[in-house]
Amino acid sequence: MKGIILAGGSGTRLHPLTHALSKQLLPVYNKPMIYYPLSVLMLAGIRDILVISAPDQVDTYRALLGDGEQLGISIDYIEQDEPRGIADAFVIGADYIGNDPVTLILGDNIFHGPSFSALLAEATRDVSGCVLFGYSVKDPERYGVGEVDAEGRLLHIEEKPSRPRSNLAITGLYIYDNEVVDITKNLGPSARGELEITDVNIAYLKQGRARLVDLGRGFAWLDTGTPESLLQAGQYVQVLEQRQGVRIACVEEIALRMGYIDAGACYRMGVAMGKSDYGVYLMDLASGRQQGQP
């Protein structure tokens, strides 16, 4: 399974914050935004990850994440010269995907909830078709919306419907078998001139090979595309981390608990961060003084 983080776009809704810096490099409380989607892919057991970003930002991502070796994973980078829709990731990344299935996550999406790693492990096992993730929202007309029957089978998908058939928004986390590359290339651009992810999902639905996993109550799905939502996401992470004494989306901790690195490597990364709370957390974690969780 390959993983892709789509970290392109111009982040216009966050101007002037994003005039010179990619949105996914902005802080969400105490860590860069891109740590959150990266942590999701790592929790899914994905160790080969592609970051797609604008040409003037790729070097900044590389400076932050390197080649992933320090986390026991492999990270590659590809430039997207201009935004052409979410599904463009499968065209840009076709050679990287090769013959493997792929999980795509949007770089400004944050997921957090109970047993998430187990849910991801099940969803990425023996993928045939596509797996989407639904989340109940009060304003479904702003999103792609999925309709399911009483047994949870996916019946219908519609992008930003004026009369939504359900309140299940389709989140920015998508799992596909290898056919997604050919399906995307054969669809062609929409009227907006973009490769729409909803069109890809509908193509799978027409084949009877799309399913929707309802993330359910008690789960948090946040996007960080506006100043208000960015602030709210930071406050959410702050409250949980300070109350529980753990770190959300701590990629070094996930690497340690997944067995990608050993305690010594985790400790050294903590030391390299100096006296920051994050660095102290990693050192305590590696020394057995911290009982955190991903």
TrEMBL record:
Reaction equations catalysed: dTTP + alpha-D-glucose 1-phosphate + H(+) = dTDP-alpha-D-glucose + diphosphate
UniProt-listed Enzyme Commission number(s): 2.7.7.24
Residues passing through the membrane, by range: none
Domain Nucleotidyl transferase: 2-236
Family annotation (CDD domains): G1P_TT_short
Top EC category: transferase
Keyword Metal-binding: yes
Signal peptide: none
Protein's job: Catalyzes the formation of dTDP-glucose, from dTTP and glucose 1-phosphate, as well as its pyrophosphorolysis.
Stored PANTHER family: GLUCOSE-1-PHOSPHATE THYMIDYLYLTRANSFERASE (PTHR43532), GLUCOSE-1-PHOSPHATE THYMIDYLYLTRANSFERASE 1 (PTHR43532:SF1)
UniProt similarity note: Belongs to the glucose-1-phosphate thymidylyltransferase family.
Protein's name in the database: Glucose-1-phosphate thymidylyltransferase
Organism: Streptomyces haneummycinicus
Lineage: Bacteria, Bacillati, Actinomycetota, Actinomycetes, Kitasatosporales
